[in-house]
Each structure stands twice: as C-alpha cells, then as structure tokens.
Amino acid sequence: MSRVAGVIVVGLFLGMFAAAKTNAAPKTIEERIAEYGEAVRQRLDPKFRAAGVPYPPKRVTLIGLKQERLLELHASGADDVPRFICAYPVLAASGKLGPKLREGDRQVPEGIYGVQELNPNSRFHLSLWLDYPNKFDRARAVADRRRKLGGEIMIHGNAVSKGCFAMGDPAAEDLFVLAVFTGIANVKVIFAPVDFRIQSAPVLPNETPAWTTRLYQELTRELARYPRRAQEGKNNAR
Asked: Which domain CATH number covers 186?
C-alpha cells in the first residue's frame, strides 16, 4: 500500500470513529444513574452524614449566588429542617446582576424556581432544566408588555454559559443523581444576585424594573430560612 493510500485509509477510519461517537445512542436517566450513581454516593454521603441528613434526602434546595459565583446545596430529612451540605463553585455564568428580562439577553434569571426536567443527554454533559419563566416572571412581563422571555435555563456541566449555571461535569453528576433520587418535585432552586443573608441589595442600572425591589425582598426572606455556609464551612466542597 502506498503512503498516500495509507493516509486515506487512516482518515476514513478516524472519520467513521468520530461519526460513531457523534451518533451514539442516547442514554436514559436509569443508565446515567448506573454510570454515575455510586461515585456520587461516595462523594456526597460523607457530607450528608456530617450535616445529619440522610442520603438521599427528603428535599433539596440549590441556592445560586451570582456575585459570589457559588451554588449552595441544602437538604432536609424527615424533620424538614434545611441544613447546609456543601457549595460548588460556578465555573461560568453569563450576564450581570439583575433579573432576566428577554430572550437573548444572556442573563441568569433571579427568583425561585423548580426543576421541570432532567436531561441525561445534554450537550453540556448532564443538566437540570428549570421552570423559567415562572408565574412571577410571566406576570411582570405582561405588566411591562414584554414578550419572548426566553427559556431553556439550566444547571449543567462543562464550563460554558449562555444564561445558565455551568458547574463542571463532576458537580453536574452530583446534582443530576441527587435530583433523581430526591425527585424533581422536591428540588427548589433559588437564584439571587448576591447573598442577601450577609449583604444588602446591589445597586442596579436605572433601567432595571421597579418590581426588582419586591423580588429582592422575597429572595431575602427566602434565603433567611437557610443556614449560611460559614456556619458549617467544614462541609464546603470548595
């Protein structure tokens, strides 16, 4: 075989290999649990035991702090008392402080959200798809006469963001598996511009909607229910 022919054969083989990888069969949630469940348990179980919360827990709250670039994990058992478990660094989050207002503004939303779906075949490894826009977002948009609010806001792996929280793949595996075992109906997500437990609301541009003050008051009350990570810093994942 000539050198040129050999190069062509190798090129064809690599092309077929890449195509096979690209066209790999999608994984189910169950298959992802089989793939990552035990590793996640080994990572999280000691943190849950240290916090006095069973793994998997009854309820989970994820607190995303935009300025601090942290995602806190809180959980509760049968007593429904939330306890700090650990915190993950946010590897990427586009936009600035302030709520998401429209499609394409690349803003991470601010508010209280649920998880509407899990994606075991995300382009960013694994993802939790949030229910943005929620009832509050839609009501404010109607009052402001805004349309096209955007959507597909997720917490996912990798380190690229277009309005989402990118957490890196290991953290995404932890959160995905935890959401499966806890049940997405029992997962709450709070996105705040800053940690209102330790500081006041940030100064935002003049064009920020007036209702943002009301939103931040609600977030302040909600965050007050959760212990600050400094009080249980020994469990911090950072």
From this structure: 2.40.440.10
Instruction: Assess if residue 21 is contained within a domain.
Output: no
Q: Total structural domains in the chain?
A: 1
| 177 CA to centre of own chain | 13
Looking only at the bridges linking them, the beta strands covering 187-192 and 59-65 are parallel
Q: Is residue 10 part of a domain?
A: no
Q: Which domain holds residue 119?
A: 27-235
pLDDT tens digits for the chain (238 residues)? 554 444 344 444 444 434 444 467 899 999 999 999 999 999 999 999 999 999 999 999 999 999 999 999 999 999 999 999 999 999 999 999 999 999 999 999 999 999 999 999 999 999 999 999 999 999 999 999 999 998 999 999 999 998 899 999 999 999 999 999 999 999 999 999 999 999 999 888 888 999 999 999 999 999 999 998 754 444 455 5
Domain for residue 16, yes or no? no
Active site (annotated) includes residue 86: no
Residue 164 annotated in active site: yes
Which one from 74, 86, 125, 156 is the annotated catalytic residue? 156
2 assigned to some structural domain: no
The b-or-e profile of 90-113 (16+ CB within 10 A means b, else e) is bbbbebebbbbbeeeeebbbbbbb
Residue 134 phi/psi, 5-degree rounding, is -90, -175
